[in-house]
Amino acid sequence: MLTKRIVPCLDIKNGRTVKGVNFVDLRDAGDPVELAKQYASVGADELVFLDIAATLEGRGTTLDMVMRVAEQVNIPFTVGGGISSIEHVDALLQCGADKVSINSSAVKRPDLVNELSNKFGAQCIVVAIDAKQINGQWKVHLAGGTIPTDLDLFEWAKEVEQRGAGEILFTSMDHDGTKAGFANEALAKLSETLNIPIIASGGAGNVQHFIDTFVEGKSDAALAASVFHFGEILIPELKKTLKENEITIRL
């Protein structure tokens, strides 16, 4: 059985880590490089950095921050936000990122997934999908959740897998920041539909939510932000409890 992963997520805006609820009402959560260093030291398995304003502002993720993070951490980290070209991915990987996350750019030009996977390998291409339920159907949203589309979550996830994505980062916009638990029903369906790892995102509020998403949601990794940033859940204690619940985890 593959080891489950705990992944703190750092949403970056104007060089600071921020966190909101349902993608709005952002508040400051600290310096991203310092937070990254701290998470690496307490047992996080991976980190995700999302430059949440990059797509809306029509620019790429800042390379300087990526270089500074790479100097401080010894665990894999993924970078996303405004990535839309082979050149940009190449620059991010050269600066020390292990994986890149693409979202809006993949929807706008699906061939980008093929191109990046062929050039750099599926193992470093994460496709992030932000979705919310509309009339009972999970619909994909773009640009930090601000633009709705007609794309179905499960159909889109299957397409990007076939195009060469190595991993899916699924954020439930309905659950984001609510601390009410992950979208486990949708996650389980994704797990049954796909053959690549799925990172659960949106809704972590307590330790039981992590247990539930690994057991009920069949998630391969669980991502959270505010509960880690503000010390509501401590990663060493979380991992100890997961192990006690017979979930395979790296201590």
Under the CATH scheme, which class?
Alpha Beta
What does the radius of gyration come to? 16 Å
- Amino- and carboxy-terminal Cα gap: 16 Å
Q: What is the count of DSSP helices, taking H or I runs of 4+ residues?
A: 10
The string of secondary-structure elements, in order, is EEEHEHEHEHHEEEHEHEHEHH
Tell the overall outline.
Answer: globular
Structural class: alpha/beta
Looking at CATH, the homologous superfamily is: Aldolase class I
**What is the total tally of β strands?**
12
Which short descriptors sum up this protein?
28% strand; 251 residues; alpha/beta
Description:
The structure is a single chain. Helix 1 runs parallel beside helix 2. The chain has a single domain (5-244), classed as Alpha-Beta Barrel (TIM Barrel), CATH 3.20.20.70. A hairpin with a 2-residue loop joins strand 1 and strand 2 (16-21). It has 251 residues and is an alpha/beta fold. The radius of gyration is 16 Å and the shape is globular. Strands 1-4-5-6-7-10-11-12 form an eight-stranded parallel beta barrel, surrounded by six helices. The protein has helices at 32-42, 63-72, 86-94, 104-108, 111-120, 153-163, 184-193, 207-215, 226-229, 235-244; strands at residues 5-13, 16-21, 24-30, 47-51, 77-80, 99-102, 125-134, 137-142, 147-152, 167-172, 198-201, 221-224.
